[in-house]
Automatic annotation (TrEMBL), chain A:
Listed GO biological process terms: negative regulation of DNA-templated transcription; response to arsenic-containing substance
Species assigned in the record: Planococcus rifietoensis
GO molecular function: DNA binding
Transmembrane segments: none
Xref: InterPro entries: Arsenical-R_ArsD (IPR010712)
Domain of life, source organism: Bacteria
The protein, known as: Transcriptional regulator
From TrEMBL, chain B:
Matches recorded under InterPro entries: AAA+_ATPase (IPR003593), Ars_ATPase (IPR027541), ArsA/GET3_ATPase-like (IPR025723), ATPase_ArsA/GET3 (IPR016300), P-loop_NTPase (IPR027417)
Official protein name in the record: Arsenical pump-driving ATPase
Annotated family: Belongs to the arsA ATPase family.
Lineage per the UniProt record: Bacteria, Bacillati, Bacillota, Bacilli, Bacillales
Gene3D superfamilies assigned: P-loop containing nucleotide triphosphate hydrolases
Organism: Planococcus rifietoensis
Amino acid sequence: MKKVEIFDPAMCCSTGVCGPTVDPELTRIASAVYSLEKKGFAISRHNLTDDPGAFVDNRQVNQVLVDKGPDALPVVLVNGEVVKIAEYPTTEELAEWFETAPSELQEKPRVRVSLNINN
Amino acid sequence: MYSLFNPNQMAVTPFLFFTGKGGVGKTSTACATAVALADQGKKVLLVSTDPASNLQDVLEVQLTNDPKSIPSVANLSACNIDPEQAAKAYKESVIGPYRGKLPDAVLATMEEQLSGACTVEIAAFDEFSHLLADEEILAQYDHVLFDTAPTGHTLRLLQLPTAWSGFLEDSTHGASCLGPLAGLEGKKALYKKAVDSLSDGDKTTLILVARPDNSSLLEADRASFELKEIGIKNQWLIVNGLLQTHQPEDAVSTAFYKRQRAAIEQTPEALKQVMAYSLPYVSYSLTGVENLRHLFSSYSITSFETEEGGDPLDLPGLNSVIDDFSEHNTRVIFTMGKGGVGKTSVASAIAVGLSEKGYKVHLTTTDPAAHLAYTFEGSGIRDNLSISSINPDIEVARYKETVIEQAGGGMTEEELAYLKEDLESPCTEEIALFQAFAKVVEKSENEIVVIDTAPTGHTLLLLDSTEAYHKEMSRSTGDVPDSVKKLLPRLRNPKETGVVIVTLAEATPVLEAARLEEDLKRAGIEPKWWVINQSLYATNTADAVLRGRAISEKKWIRKVDAELAEKCAIIPWLEEEKIGYDQLKEFIL
């Protein structure tokens, strides 16, 4: 099975609504990644603001950043090789890498645990 | 009229939170209350979040974030939490370890994401919660006073179940609005306890501090409602700086007095239900323990501020600002400053002045009352002045709808709640407003545009992150309107754009304005003019109380003129609310 890693740019909030523009790409990619994770595929995401270590430890990504700066993000790796720079994979590309149908990748993330501070 | 606030004659809860916009006198009221309670023999801790901490000057002690006893007041301890500092420390803890490991440009994008108002708010709450939830603190002190309160936005975020679920650590999400909380599941119990203490009426009183003027009372009403909704129901209102008497033969004194009384009569209905007290307008500034004691012990005017030395100050009026913009052919003019300093009046007066010079001018105001447009009607308004008003509430609501439409499709209820709360962040309002301004500016290619609010540096930098704005745009599928793209470079061009900082000659407004200026400079915008508005020093009032205040203004006028402003103008306190065209002309004389 292929392993896909997405290295996101620094984001204020991943919903993309705190930033200067609302990026439906973010919502789309979040849903796709979530669906794939649930199906047990090897896909992961790293946000620069929350998880800078990943951007240091991964040599490939680090090199892209040194060469091209922050505009190169998001960077997408398949099996450890850089396949995309400065854009997210399309739903079709993801489906192709994991040999599944694009329609399978539309599921919204669900909250796993819910702890209410008010109770 | 209200009874005078006197902590010596009332039952006081263990926790007191003072809330209100900058310049209403939160810190001095909190200090005076703390000293009064300590003088009764109660053990008191005063927690200040004043970044400039003039508290240190008041109490004559260097404060740290650990409680320290105050030598000049038995039973009183104080500590100073600087939320900006706390946010900075948090930012450094995130970024520091990666210096030299990631390129500087990459670190800069992280840093900007962590520079929003939310990070500061949450960092401050984090500091509060330790004090609120710590049993030892409660055992040690009878009263803990905070000179500020957490905002509704922060408290709501903390009450959302999603904030405490796997949502935050889920690799598909991460929210820096809750930056300092991310991955700090261990703090959940602490925050819950803090929120519980806040909403327990036996433990906590929220004290809304307002000035006797319409905008300040409106703001208190808004805060009161918002915090009631969250469950903080035990509230008092203190109307601070109420002139007790006036001199009928002195025009300024009479107008000042009447305006205050009129504002109080127009107190919003809901706020009238809150237990209200007042504090007198005094001739001295509330610094030094003796002055603080004086506030509750005797309301007569005893001492005058000693006449401050130095030459009389002579600053130009607003007409110099207008001449300067005319001479340099400035096309876009923003006035900025905190609430209650008169940004709208100054913007309107600049617009009137330029139109009098024969320019075509468009004035855009965010004044919610929108009575500006109303009073301009039929007041001999010229053909070359047009006005539009941007209603922040409507713009923000519209923006939120668009966002939820674009991003919220098919989300679970919890996520939608989270998305909606993310949208309550201060950044959202700014971006929504900025888009509205940009539209106005775009439509007015052949006119001078005057706008009574400016975006913050943080917004501009987000919109323009790391100089790569256009690249960013070509990549992002999010829809940044063309008008915004066009406006950004214009804003940075001093030949085209002028920013006017409006302030009052008092400690907090000046220090807050200085921070606004720093923030804009970060985004590469240099404010050209400072305007000191509503100055008593610039009037010739003979009223003893007002005269004392006029003299204490000098220090701040001097500071603005000598240290902060490239160019500085002053406007005397005027007898009426200037809103009509012809009255506005008086500003310019």
